[in-house]
Design brief:
The complex is a heterotrimer of chains A (297), B (358) and C (255). Chain A has 297 residues and is mainly alpha-helical. Chain A has a single domain, classed as MetI-like fold (Orthogonal Bundle). Chain A contains 15 helices and two strands. Chain A has a two-stranded antiparallel ribbon. Chain A is globular. The N and C termini of chain A lie close together (8 Å). Chain C has a single domain, classed as MetI-like fold. The chains are: A mainly alpha (297), B alpha/beta (358), C mainly alpha (255). At the A-C interface, helix 1, helix 2, helix 3, helix 5 and helix 6 of A face helix 1, helix 3, helix 4, helix 5 and helix 6 of C.
Chain lengths: 297, 358, 255
Amino acid sequence: MNPWSSSKEAAAGLCSRFGGWRLLGPGLLWTTVFCLLPMVVVLAVSLATRGTYGGVVWEFSLDNYRDLLHPLYGRIFGQSLLLAGMTTGMCLALGFPLAYYIARLPPRRQALWLIFIMIPFWTNFLVRTYAWIFILRTEGLLNTVLMQLQLISTPLDLLYSNQAVLLGLVYGYLPFMVLPLYAAIERIDPALIEAAWDLYADRWSLFRRVLIPLTKPGIIAGCVLVFIPSLGAYLTPDLLGGARSMMVGNLIQHEYLVARDWPLGSALSILLMLIVMGSLLWYFNAQSPQIRERGEQ
Amino acid sequence: MPVSRGLVRFLGFVAIAVLLWNGCDRGRETNQQGGAGAMVTLHYFTWSDYVSPELIHEFEQAHGARVVVDTFSSNEELLAKLQGGASGYDVAVPSDFMVSIMAAQGMLAELDSAALPNLKALEPHLQHPAFDPTHRYAVPYLWGTVGIGYDSTVVTPPPDSWDILWDKRYRGRISMLNDQREVFGAVLRSMGQSMNTTDPTVIEAAKHKLIAQKPLVKTYASEHYDQLLASGDVVLAQGWGGQVARAMRDRPSIRYVVPKEGGTIWADCLVVLRTSPNKALAMQFINFLIDARVAARTSERLLFAASNREARAWISRDILENPAVYPPAELIPRMEWMGDVGKVMRTYDRAWTELKMQ
Amino acid sequence: MRGQGIWLQSISGLGIAFLYLPIIVLVVFSFNASRLSATWQGFSWHWYGVLWHDEALLAAAANSLWVAVLSTSLVVLLGVPAAMGLERLRGRGRQALETIFLLPLVLPEVMMGVALLLFFVMIHWPLSLATVVVGHAAFNLPVVIVMVRARLQKLDPRLEEAASDLGASAWQTFYRVTWPLVRPAVLGAALLAFTISLDDFIVTFFVAGPGATTLPLKVYSMIKSGLSPEINALSSVLVLASMGLVGLSLMFQRR
C-alpha cells in the first residue's frame, strides 16, 4: 500500500491546511458540470421525442430504445464490434512481437524505440489518416508504383472499403497496444525466460505457457485501449470508408448532425457507452487482485 | 467556513476567466456601436470552398470589418448546427428548400430590400422563387442544376437517363452526392415521381432502389467528386453542374448531362440569421456578394451560375456556354425545385439513415 | 539473447516501417511539384508557399493554439490540486472519485461530443470558441490527474513532513518541496493535454460555434474537398511540430 495516504503524519503537508476536499473541489465540480451532467442530459434526451424538424420534444417515450431493436442497428453494432475486434486482434498480433523485441533490447535502445513508437501517437490523427488516402486511392502512391513496376495493369480499388477502414484503425491505434505490452514484458525477469527455454522444447509453448500468462494484464490493457476508441471511431470510417460503411460513431454523428434525431442519437450513445463500460468491467474483473495491487503502484 | 472560501475564490476566478473570454469573443462582434475605431466581425457560415479569399478581403477593406468564415457540408448540417445553438452567425447560405424550413423555424431575419439594390438584377426565374417569392428572407446567390458527370471515353453511348447509375458495368465507379434530398431526388425522378413526394410507399420504394444501387456506389461524396472524376476514380458522378465543370478542366473527356427525366434546379441563397448581431453589415455583405462584378468573379472561380443576370457580361464565353454551369434556357422548365416536405422530412431522414447503414 | 530471432527482428522492423512509411511518404511528396498525381515531378517548395499564404488556414491554426493554451491552463489549474487531493483521500470515497474523474478518459469521443453539445443547448450557452475550450478541458482533465498522480505516488512523504517540522507553512511546503518534485510531471501532462487538444476533431466538431474553426476542422474540410499537395505540406509541418513536442516532453521527463 502507498504509505502516503495511510500515514497520519502525511497530514502535515498541504492537506492539513488545504484539506483533500478543498483541493478536489474545483476539479470535481468541473467534471460534474461538464461531464456527468451532460451525460445525464443525454440519458434524459434519449427518453424524449423528436420534433418534426429536429430538436427535442419533452414527451417521455421508450420508442428510441425500441428503435434500437431494429435489425439494421444491430448490424451496425455488430459490424462495429467485429471491426473493433479485428483491429484489436491485428494490433495484438503486430504489437506483441514489437513490444517483446523492444523489451529485450539494451535499455538505451529501448528508450529510442519507445520514442519511435510514440511519435506517431503524437502526430495529428487526421494527418495519419490522410496519409492512407494518399497511398490507397486509385491514382495514389501504391497504384502508381505497382503500375510502374508493371505488376498490375489496372489500378486496384483500395480506398473506400472495410479493409481500408481496418487498416486505418490498426495504424491509428497500434501505439496504444505496444506501450502497455512493453510495460508488461519489460517486467518479466529475463531469467524466467531463460529457464523456460531450457524447460520447453519449442517457441510456441514458451509463448503460450510463459509469456502469455505473465503478460496477461498488459495484453488486456492494450486490448481495452485499442478496442474502446476503435469501436467509437468516426474519422477513419468516414474518410477511408467513403461514407459508405458506417460504424457506431458515424451513426451517432449522422443522427445528430444529418438526421437531427437527437433522442435516437442519444439512445445510441447510451448503448455504446454501456458496451464500453461492459468491456471495462470485464477488464477489471479479468485482472487478478494481486495484479491489481501491482497496477496501483 | 474557510473550506468553502478558497473554493469560492477559485471558482470565481474560473468564472471570470470564462466570462472574459466569452466577453471578448462577443465584444468583437457587437462593438459596432463602439464607434469608428472598433473592428466589427461578420460571421459567414457557408459551404466548404464556396468563398474566394480575395473577395472577402475586398469587402473587409471597403467596410472596415473582419469576416470570419466557417463552413458546413450539407443543408442538414447547417440546420443541425443552428438548432444546436450556434447563434453568432450573421450570414448563412442555405439552399432553396432549407430557406423555407429555416423561415418556418423562425431562424431568419427579414431582409431590408432598400439595403439590397443589387436585388433588382436577378435572373428572371429567380425573381419570384416558390420558396420565398418576395425575397423576404433570402436572396438567391448561386444556382444551377444537378445532373450526371461522366467520362465520355468510358461511358458510351452518352447516358441520357438516371438509370445509368444503376448500370452494373460501372460497379464501383459511381459516386453519389452525400446529400439525402438530392440522392432521393434522382431516384424519384428516375421512377417518374416528383422529388418532393410525400407518399411514404413511394419513398419506401425509392429507398429499396437505392439500397439495390449501393453495391455499385464507390462513395457518397458531396465535396471531392470533381477530383474523383478528374482522377478516374469514378466515371459516373451525380453532382452539381459547376463542380462537374471543374473536373472538366483537369480531364477534358468529362461531360455533363441532365437526364431526360429531369433533375433538380437549385439556388443557394444568402440569408441573415435572426440572431445576427450585425444585421446592417450583413445586408451590405449580401449586396456586395450579388453585385454583378463580384458575382461574376465568384462564378468564374466556382463555376456556378450567378443569380445576378448582369454578371453574365463579365463572365467568359466558354463558361456561359458550358451547360454544366449555365443550364440552357429550354432546360429550366424540365427541372424541379426541391421543396419543404414538412413532417415527411422525417421519413426521408429515416430512409437515408437506413440506406447509409446498409 | 536467443529471444531476438531473425523473425522477431523482421516483424518489429515491419511494424516500425508500417508506422512510419505513410508519414515519410507524405513528407516526401509535399515537395512534389505536381498538383494532382502521385508521380514525382520535381522538387518544389511551392506548396509551403501556398500554405503560408492561406489565411483561413492560419486563422484556424491560431484558433487551435488559443484553444490548446486556454484549455491546457485550465486543466492544469484544476487537475494538479485534484490529483493532490485524491492522493490524500482514503478509502471508498477515493475509489468513487477516481471513477468519476477518469470517466472522460474511457468515454467514446463521440459520446463526449454529443453530451457536451446537448448540455450547451440545454443551458442556452451559445456555441463558440469558448465552448470548445470548455469541451477540451473536460476531456483533458483526467489526463493531467493521471499523470500527476503517478508522480505523486512516487514521492517520499517524509519530505513534506520534514518541511513542516522545520516550520514551513503549507504554501511554503508546496512551493519549495512538492512543486519542484512534481513539476516535470505537470509539464509532461500539460504537453500531452496540449497535444490532445491540438489534435481533437470529434468533440470540436460537435461544439464548435461561429469563428471556432480549429485546425483539425479545417484540415478535415480540406481533405473532404479533395486532395491537394497543400495538405501534404501542412501535414509535414504538423509532423515536425509533434516531433518537437515529443522532444520537449522527453526533456522535461529527463529532469
